[in-house]
Amino acid sequence: MRDAMRMALTLLIIGAICGGLLSVVNGVTAPVIQARERALFMEAVQAFFPDGVDSETKEIGGEQFYLCKDASGKFIGVVAKAKATGYGGEISYDLAVSDTGDIVGIRISSHGETPGIGDVITKPEFQDRIIGLNVADPITAGVDVDTVTGATVSSGGMIESIRRVMTIIGENFL
User: Fold this and answer.
1) Spatial contact of 147 and 166, defined as CB atoms under 8 Å apart
2) Which of 59, 77, 81, 169 is the most exposed place for a label (fewest CB within 10 A)?
3) What's the longest Cα–Cα distance across the chain?
């Protein structure tokens, strides 16, 4: 009995020390990770809209929208930081839409999809099906965007989310 109590106490102390160390490491690395994610997002915005010099942020329906303007202050497009539900969980992506309502770019920033199957959403073969679609298009799986065989949950979730985001953009910014 005494040995069991000693082992339990030892495990409790070790667990507390490990938990404390993880907390400290997270506190140190979290701001660095956030700064890197922000820098990568701003690089993507600049790639989507090279003439963009200013942006304004709005949040609608849990998604963030960056309204991009050129040097003269003219609205040139919007970039949505959005989320979709895939087979492997949440998919975070950026969707760039021009002032005329055309999708000009997409960037998958994080996902947990299966390598070789669900991660098809990161490939040009899938993304090229979406780029060029307009806010007026149905953007419906099987109608103007095919889902990917073997990755129907991932690609279907992305298509559904893109339609939702395009509706928000069309109703609020175009």
Assistant:
1) no
2) 59
3) 78
Any domain includes 9: no
CATH code assigned at 111: 3.90.1010
Q: Count up the domains in the chain and report the number.
A: 1
Q: Which residues of 13-28 are buried (b: 16+ CB within 10 A; e: fewer)?
A: eeeeeeeeeeeeeeee
Phi/psi for 35 (5° steps) reads -65, -40
**One-letter amino acid of 174:** L
- The answer to whether residue 90 is domain-embedded is yes
Domain extent for 105: 49-172
pLDDT tens digits for the chain (174 residues)? 788 899 989 999 999 999 988 888 888 888 888 888 888 898 999 999 999 888 889 999 889 999 999 999 999 999 999 999 988 889 999 999 999 999 999 999 998 887 877 777 888 888 898 999 999 998 877 666 656 655 567 788 899 999 999 999 999 998
Residue 32 lies in a domain: no
